[in-house]
Amino acid sequence: SLRLHGTEEDCSDRTSSQCIRFRAQFTAFLQCFCTSEVQILPVCSDRIVLIMGARSQLWSIAKMSVTGGVIGVTISDRYVTVVAIKGHSMHPTMTATDSALRGDIVLAEKACLDQYKFSRGDVILFKCPSNHKEVFVKRLIGLPGEWIQLPASSEIIKVPQGHCWVEGDNAARSWDSRSFGPIPLGLINGRVTHIIWPPSKIGRVERKWPEDRIPPF
Amino acid sequence: MITLMIPKTKGKIIPIEPSSPSAAAMSRFVRRLAGIPWRQIAGEASSVGLLMAQGLCAVHVVSEHVLGVAFPRGPSMLPALNMAGDVLLTDKVSPRRGWVGPGDVVLLLSPEDPRKIVAKRVLGMEGDEVTYPVDAGNSDATKTVVVPQGHIWVQGDNIYSSNDSRQFGPVPYGLVKGKMSYRIWPPSRIGSIDSKE
């Protein structure tokens, strides 16, 4: 609380109408700078005590941050989220660097998780099948029910129902379905639509088919 | 057609006396419309809308990340869960933290159709050896399998009528969405779901 010392001449009689008017005007003046309530109490004839609610200011900041956090979590869960890329499996479409930002930052949309309808060539985020805490980013090569050719050999396999086949753009440094097989669609976290950092790479992430692959049938 | 000439004087609109009864009615209507406090209504509507949006976001955060409600249906978990009509509390914190073990009843996305959520009991975690009846009801043959890293083996309690890991194999742990911990309906069976091996 803040104490303001008035002089006897200003407010000798706290019940006088002049004193009351002064207090009212001063309160209104200070209210402009305070989000919480301002009160001036005439404690004694030569003192004006000013009580400012510092605690209630902290409380409103806490309320605003909790509300913002809840709304942010909901938007990030259902509509769009921002992810930083680690790893080199999608080079040159997306890269990781050793800088503080750890690499490219991308925008991923979650609307696709409503019906799990994807297209060949989409870049998707998904949980690693052997470690649920890690999230991978790869390109969707095979949709459920399709027959695809394994890149290295001439083997042809069928992607089971409810699963998909993913591969990274940088085949040499990508740990993907060629190692852990088709993944259930339920592991997918979102679809990458745009790169938003670094500024030289800002733009849409296009649906693209790798050049030397035979399309599935 | 009736035309109302409305000259503006210093920002105020002064209506001219209308010439016919229908024109009089229309000018009364226009005056009524102008008298409604549109800005106040819009302000109140937007603040109510904002409050509702905040409420819905809070409901989403709680039911997705803390505690949800599930209504399981189907015969695959008899006798632990009824065929229909049960209401269960789902703990969403445990799977994220890895506090799921053998004997727990979990909710997971079906590996055959990600839009379906199924409830099954966990029989084995990664590295465990699971022995299961291959063709329950017809033969006594069993098979033993080791659960791969990051996966779990799920089976329905009612092995005669359950589509589970015996058909679709071990599932990645990332498909687990919640752990069923407590039944709140029907009243005769309120209590925690037994976790049995």
TrEMBL record, chain A:
Entry keyword annotation includes Transmembrane helix: yes
Matches recorded under CDD domains: S26_SPase_I (cd06530)
Domain Peptidase S26 positions: 61-150, 157-197
Compartment(s) of residence: Mitochondrion inner membrane
UniProt KW Glycosyltransferase keyword: no
Primary residence: mitochondrion
SUPFAM superfamilies attached to this UniProt entry: LexA/Signal peptidase
Record keywords, A-Z: Hydrolase, Membrane, Mitochondrion, Mitochondrion inner membrane, Protease, Transmembrane, Transmembrane helix
GO molecular function, one term: serine-type endopeptidase activity
GO cellular component annotations of the record: mitochondrial inner membrane peptidase complex
One GO-annotated biological process of the protein: signal peptide processing
Entries under InterPro entries matching the protein: IMP2 (IPR037730), LexA/Signal_pep-like_sf (IPR036286), Pept_S26A_signal_pept_1 (IPR000223), Pept_S26A_signal_pept_1_Lys-AS (IPR019757), Peptidase_S26 (IPR019533)
Catalytic machinery residues: S89, K138
Pfam family for this entry, one: Peptidase_S26
Membrane topology listed for this record: Single-pass membrane protein
Assigned protein family: Belongs to the peptidase S26 family. IMP2 subfamily.
PANTHER family documented for this protein: MITOCHONDRIAL INNER MEMBRANE PROTEASE SUBUNIT 2
Protein name: Mitochondrial inner membrane protease subunit 2
UniProt organism field: Aegilops tauschii subsp. strangulata
Automatic annotation (TrEMBL), chain B:
Catalytic residues (UniProt): S76, K120
Molecular function in Gene Ontology: serine-type endopeptidase activity
Subcellular compartments: Mitochondrion inner membrane
Top-level division of the source organism's lineage: Eukaryota
Gene3D superfamilies (alphabetical): Umud Fragment, subunit A (2.10.109.10)
Peptidase S26 domain segment(s): 52-133, 142-185
Matching CDD domains: S26_SPase_I (cd06530)
UniProt keyword annotations, A-Z: Hydrolase, Membrane, Mitochondrion, Mitochondrion inner membrane
Cellular-component GO terms for this entry: mitochondrial inner membrane peptidase complex
Entry-linked InterPro entries: LexA/Signal_pep-like_sf, Mito_IMP1_subunit, Pept_S26A_signal_pept_1, Peptidase_S26
Family: Belongs to the peptidase S26 family. IMP1 subfamily.
Function: Catalyzes the removal of transit peptides required for the targeting of proteins from the mitochondrial matrix, across the inner membrane, into the inter-membrane space.
Quaternary structure note: Heterodimer of 2 subunits, IMP1A/B and IMP12.
Protein name: Peptidase S26 domain-containing protein
